[in-house]
Amino acid sequence: MTRVSVVGSPETVRAGVAELVQETGADEIIVAAQTYEHAARLRSYELLAQACELAVQESGDRQA
Known about the structure:
Elements: H1 10-24, H2 38-51
Helix pairs in contact: 1-2
């Protein structure tokens, strides 16, 4: 199993995720934020989505 942490500015995170994808050939990434407070964890995911230029959905807008 590959263990990777990517921490830093939006540019650093974007580059780290891109490098991980290129090195592994992954077509998806599982993200785990080690943050206890739910709102802070959601904010971390929003920041990651913005850094990687992904669409952010409101919590009630989930698609199955």
